[in-house]
Amino acid sequence: MSLKLPDRARIAAWAAGIALLAVNGEALAGETAITCSNPASGASWQITIDYDRSMVDSNPAQVSDTKISWHDAKDGGNYTLDRKSGDLTVIVASSTGGYFIYDRCRLGNSG
Fold it and tell me: Which terminal CB of the chain, N or C, has fewer other CB atoms within 10 Å?
């Protein structure tokens, strides 16, 4: 049986998705709470990443081996978490051009 190109592409995409779930030899699954902070103000908070559903704090997220990105409709922020460094970049658009915020997250075993 020979596989047609679309079948091979689906299998490759599935395999790539499985590979992205592995970090340090362990599959990421379930929910993980991590603490983030603003280095300028010292304020800190937790975010919850649900790897099974690709969600962050109940917002749909794009999860890759290098970053997690999501949009929070409540505050209008577009968030990108670097899974290696823990850098969290927030981009908020506005009629005056918007702004960036650079925060930091302690990833522990989750990144």
Answer: N
